[in-house]
Amino acid sequence: MTIEVRRFAYRREFAQQTQWHETAREFGMYSDADPGCSLGSEFRAWQLGRVFFLAGDVRGQTLTPMSADASQWSADYVSIKLITGGEMWIEETSATHRIGSGDFVLLDAQRPYKAITPERATGFVMRMPRQALMERGFRTALDHVRLPDLSSPDVQLVRALIECVGGLSRRPSADVMQRVSDQLLDLMDIVLERPTASGRRRTAAAMVRQAKQFIARHAGDPDLTPALIAAHVCISSKHLGRLFSAQGGSLMRYVLSVRLEQAARLLKATPWHRNLVQQIAYQCGFSSASHFSHAFKRRYGVAPADVFGSPHFPVEPRASVPTEI
């Protein structure tokens, strides 16, 4: 299945030139196009989870972002512009930057700039919701154009991943698109933050969110410990435990809750067979089938063996049994 893409191009016909300018404004940009040099310019736009991609071949144009009052794109999104061919000049109040093939740049449309393409530039724009960055404790306002350090292997990997995802032609499943979108956003501290500043800038909510994402990906690991989770978040186990307690829960009760929810989905979707309960118990990170069965019945009020085919499942956990303490 192909990705659902909107396409627009700059052609000789007046109607298509008008549509180009109107569509550019729809995406939060004013386009100053040279009618002779801009012919052949094209854009493709699509959404991947919470992230928006634009693939462009721009010729003889100057693009200026609309004000935050005039466009939600400027108000609600931060952009990465990645060049795969040709060159572009980014002009801001205090400096002008040449962005050539292989380079990429972070841009905040709330800070005025011009993207000037005297001849031709190809590449991608990835637009990230400010809210999604805030949820992760990352900065959402840039005081100037930011050029990530391409000598860093970490930055090179992020750039390569953006280019790889931007080059997709077939649409993955909705679940995979959302997961890839989340992973791209999770990596943005590598290019948004100074290495020594990232940990200090994160909010408690952002660190808990990061921990929960890690737990969701590794809940099936029986060796998932507070120390392992805390190491991923780059804080101490005690501090992470306090963060969960401050939200009215506990870290390992949350891990248990995630494992039981994963197990419930598997039990509901898998036809019954011998050793199914034991198989799912181990698959979801439980040390034994008996421990799993006891915890599952306490949570859902039914035994794991009674789940498949039950019209009354899933059910809400018993009111007297908290899922997160």
UniProtKB/TrEMBL annotation:
Coiled-coil intervals, chain numbering: none
Entry keywords, A to Z: DNA-binding, Transcription, Transcription regulation
SUPFAM superfamilies recorded: Homeodomain-like
Molecular functions (GO terms): DNA-binding transcription factor activity; sequence-specific DNA binding
InterPro entries recorded: AraC-bd_2, AraC_XylS_family_regulators, Homeodomain-like_sf, HTH_AraC, HTH_AraC-typ_CS, Tscrpt_reg_AraC-type_HTH
The keyword Zinc-finger appears for this protein: no
Top-level taxon of the source organism: Bacteria
Classification via PROSITE patterns: HTH_ARAC_FAMILY_1 (PS00041), HTH_ARAC_FAMILY_2 (PS01124)
Domain HTH araC/xylS-type: 209-310
Protein's name in the database: AraC family transcriptional regulator
Species this chain originates from: Paraburkholderia rhizosphaerae
